[in-house]
Design a protein that fits this description.
The chain has 5 helices and 28 strands. By secondary structure, it is mainly β. The longest helix is centred in the middle third of the chain and has 13 residues.
């Protein structure tokens, strides 16, 4: 429920409150125990358990606020307070005397900005902490690069992280109605780069000496793998550092977009200059210490330019079949990779090639009636993949079944790895079915009995061999979730 309030006759405000409880159960879980704050040099440990474990038990309260003190000025705030209760949290005796340790929480802010509208006719400015979403596809948006992603929660898949920005919009309204609708020109300036929040499983490949080496050249990968195999029994957990771009005007990010509507079809063209928000390895320097091989791993965020496009609409003669096409051509700078072991000449290769590559999403949706909707997408390049030689082919298929006046929703979603397509297009035989086919299943039941309350029961089920995209250990284990949400 949204209720207005008026402090003065010329000031209007709106409030929205949401409460969410989220509980997760990991089956055959693989997770990490993080180092203590006062013992940062002690590396994290991979812990495997064959028994189900509670992996999440959180409660959040979210407040959204809109205040309009003047017809041309609006303030928007969106803040969420989340109480965290981790099942694998280790507490020291002093922490047992601290309420902040016993009852940890975090604060997330998705919006804190000022809108100034119609500074000049059609010209709007937005200043502050905000999320700017680009793209027409469902979830898999290759042009949505302005905000970094929160990848911590697999059930949500990806959420944008708000950042401080300056956004300027100019809307051109044609004098006469016709085939061309309003045209919106957008410019965005982001002073400081903000990296993505990675899942806890992101450390697993770094700690596993048998994980695939992220290098382009096959011969270099083989040489590094052979060297790691020779000292596999001596390898200690690495010390990993991610170097973010330094604060400078030259490292600020820029985005521009033009969006228009022609008939029943929307389209846009976009440009971005900045950095990819997921780090890649650029060096690993190893040395012997006390009969162990200790390594220092350095990650960086690749600099890139992007030219993007998207188009979406409905096809009337196909019973209003919905469609969308969204693509981003990336122009990255080359990222070298150096792997060194004390006493041995370093091995040099390429982590990211300095040549353009295309990320692409093509999708359709179709409603058979008010109860059944089918949607599907082809995705070239997942969110964590960057580089011409690092892109996967994924088929996304979903089915929504609605009953009881939309109070019950059954959603069945599957992501299927189809990397054998690359070999097939090149006329080559695929090397291994096990490594090139895998899946991630998302069944969910949503009950909405009273309008303001939603209850979700679902699961995340990865299927595949350990060398496949969804079967690798970094993907995580099978997870069951129960969520309850109330909005007022």
């Amino acid at each position: 429920m949204v209720w207005p309030a008026t402090a003065r006759a010329e000031v209007s405000s709106e409030f929205h409150v949401e409460v969410l409880n989220d509980t997760r159960l990991d089956v055959d879980r693989i997770y990490l125990i993080q180092p203590d704050d006062d013992d940062a040099d002690r590396a994290s440990q991979i812990v495997e358990s064959g028994d189900p474990e509670l992996s999440r038990n959180e409660t959040g309260v979210r407040l959204k606020l809109r205040v309009t003190p003047h017809p041309q000025v609006r303030f928007v705030g969106d803040v969420e307070l989340i109480w965290v209760n981790l099942s694998d949290r280790l507490l020291s005796l002093p922490q047992l005397t601290s309420r902040s340790s016993m009852d940890p929480f975090r604060l997330e802010c998705d919006a804190a900005y000022i809108d100034i509208r119609d500074i000049l006719p059609g010209l709007d400015v937005r200043i502050g902490r905000q999320i700017v979403h680009w793209g027409a596809a469902d979830m898999f948006n290759p042009t949505a690069v302005l905000n970094s992603d929160d990848l911590e929660d697999r059930a949500v898949f990806r959420e944008p992280i708000a950042n401080e920005m300056l956004r300027i919009d100019y809307t051109y309204v044609p004098e006469r109605e016709g085939w061309l609708g309003d045209v919106i020109f957008t410019f965005v300036w982001i002073p400081i780069f903000r990296p993505s929040q990675l899942p806890r499983s992101a450390m697993i490949p770094m700690m596993d000496p048998n994980s695939e080496v992220p290098v382009v050249e096959d011969d270099v990968r083989e040489n590094i793998t052979n060297l790691r195999t020779m000292v596999a029994d001596l390898i200690a957990d690495p010390h990993v550092t991610a170097e973010t771009p330094e604060f400078s005007f030259n490292n600020s990010q820029l985005g521009a977009r033009v969006q228009a509507r022609m008939g029943e079809t929307d389209f846009s063209l976009s440009y971005y200059r900045g950095f990819d928000d997921i780090p890649v390895m650029t060096s690993a320097e190893a040395r012997m210490e006390d009969d162990s091989v200790v390594s220092d791993v350095t990650l960086i965020y690749p600099r890139t330019h992007m030219l993007g496009f998207d188009i979406n609409g409905q096809i009337a003669f196909l019973d209003n079949l919905g469609f969308w096409i969204e693509g981003a051509v990336m122009f990255p700078e080359r990222v070298p990779l150096t792997f060194g072991l004390e006493g041995i000449p370093p091995i040099e290769g390429t982590a990211v090639e300095g040549r353009p590559f295309l990320k692409l999403t093509i999708g359709i949706d179709y409603s058979f009636d008010e109860h059944v909707m089918l949607f599907s997408q082809y995705v070239r390049g997942m969110i964590n993949e960057f580089g011409a030689s690092a892109l996967s082919n994924i088929l996304f298929v979903g089915l929504d079944l609605k009953f009881w006046s939309d109070r019950i929703l059954i959603r069945l979603v599957g992501l299927v790895q189809m990397d054998w397509l690359d070999d097939a297009f090149q006329g080559e035989s695929y090397s291994s079915w096990d490594d090139q086919i895998s899946a991630n299943l998302f069944p969910m039941l949503r009950i909405n009995p009273w309008g303001a309350v939603e209850i979700d029961l679902g699961a995340i089920i990865p299927i595949g061999s350990e060398g496949s995209y969804f079967g690798q250990r970094a993907t995580g284990s099978t997870e069951v979730f129960l969520r309850a949400r109330a909005a007022f």
